Amino acid sequence: MDEAARVKIAVYGHFAEIGTRPSPSEVAQRAGIGEPGVLAAYRVLRAQRLLLLEPDGTTIRMAPPFSGVPTQHRVESGGTSYFANCAWDALGIPAALRRPGRVHSLCEQSGEPLDLSVERNGPEPSPWLFHCSVPAARWWDDLVFT
Amino acid sequence: MLFFRSEERVRAWCADRREPLRPRVTMDQLWSLATTWYATRLDEDSRRPKAEEMRGIFASIGLDDPFWDPSADLFA
Questions:
Q1: Which residues of B touch A87 (CB under 8 A)?
Q2: ipTM of the prediction
Q3: For a 10 Å CB count at each end of chain B, is N or C smaller?
């Protein structure tokens, strides 16, 4: 496995187990490589659109579907709490973990709370909708806004 | 990428913000996208779908509007 793959597994493994973003030193320890190698791998993973960094270039903002910062989309699964980057990623977290979860979010227009049970085979029947203002071709122009 | 309680809520939000009304996605469609994108994300050899794959994925669940085309230049 190359270093970028080892770092990816380390980052995503940390998110899955802990629910929060890892520091470069935590990734280095988990991946078994030095921090310079971790930061070099971050650039590779960014190019593969598997990671989004803060402007400092070392702090993870997103490892989709996981968010490194609190958001309005929260997921509870297996006794761990996670933040998702968006509505899509809120369902993406139970999908990535391959275990049931509960999505807590809200209606962007009315503020009504969403409390959605997601099983291994999908969400419970729900009339709620997903809407994205940004076309697919522009998603990564500004992923935080998207 | 947001949740809305109903079609009416989406329309009201778009009108209030003068945002264009984009295709609405059901929760079942969203689950299809979530699993396609992320079910193997914790695996060593997982990767994000490529542009040409994305078009097929969206079309397979009825999302065939140019809005979903990652190569479309209609929105530049």
A1: 1-3, 30
A2: 0.89
A3: C
